[in-house]
Amino acid sequence: MKKLQNITNKLYPTALLLFLLLVWHMVTETGFVPKFMLPSPIDVIRAFINSFSELMQHAAVSLTEAFGGLAISIVLAFSIALLMDRFEALYKAVHPLLVVTQTIPTVALAPLLVLWLGYDMAPKITLVVLTCFFPMTIALLGGFKSSDTDAMNLMRAMGARKWQIYRYIKLPNALPGFFSGLKISVSYSIVGAVIAEWLGGNSGLGVYMTRVRKSYAFDKMFAVIFLIIILSLLLMKCVGLLERRAMPWRHTEEERN
Question: Least CB-packed of 52, 69, 180, 218 within 10 Å?
């Protein structure tokens, strides 16, 4: 019964997506919107197939930047969240600054990072870090601070050390929030790398997108957009699989319910 419900739930977004693609195709084929302004889905698929090898080369660069920034973001998120949870004064000092950093548009930071760090991977990875670490940090910090106080007091009464309290109570409580933040961050990581590549670089999906836009090859530009969407969805799916491996007890409970 549950499998049937899952299949039914997936049919609704699939049907809506197919409907939107059909409307898109009809709008372009009937000439309601000129194809030089909006290429048809068939033109986009054709451009994707014809440029596949070139797209994969640029995608490899963007993914390298995204993974590098994401790895640094995870380390930073755990470090900052642990320190802010451990030291209340540090939490009061740093937390408002973290919130303020998220009000700065990444598009405004990108040219400055390129100016300061050059045209290599450094500014791209830095922008990915600035984009990705905040959701994970806030999620981890919320999990640490919402841990069961009675359980922690019991462990302290039994002589548990601080690292044991984190290991057995605080970290398991923070993992659901962390993976939720990670799912957001993996999609942000691709977008952050592409935005940085718009403003400088020799390769990457952002560079490729800028080139095809200047040559008015909008079918190739849409192909890049769809590739970015596919990569983001695949990364989010990988995070979901990792979540199941890291928290098997949670999914066992969900299956029972």
Answer: 52
